[in-house]
Design goal:
mainly alpha, 2 domains, 4 helices, elongated
Length: 91
């Protein structure tokens, strides 16, 4: 596994600050302040996800491995849940 030190530093900086805010919020006696801090933390996390996805324009390669024939059936049905539900409806 290759580790990108720039990304590790960015993530640690982002999440350590937010974690410190969350811990500090647990000591705040006013519920309204806690709710406001929770909303701010959620908003900053949304921003982090947006920024991370937006910056990740490189894409990746993946290899799909289907060992037993049953796994091909799962894939053809859109997943194991859909496969099981269709089988239940057939009986």
């Amino acid at each position: 596994m290759r580790v990108n030190p720039v990304l590790v530093e960015r993530d640690l900086r982002f999440f350590l600050v937010r974690y410190a805010v969350a811990v500090a919020a647990s000591f705040v006696p006013l519920r309204s302040v806690k709710v406001a801090l929770a909303g701010a933390l959620l908003a900053t996390y949304g921003y982090y996800v947006w920024r991370t996805v937006r910056a990740d324009d490189q894409g990746f390669r993946a290899r799909l491995r289907l060992a037993p024939p049953r796994e091909r059936e799962y894939l053809q049905h859109g997943g194991i849940l859909q496969y099981v539900l269709r089988r239940l409806l057939e009986t």
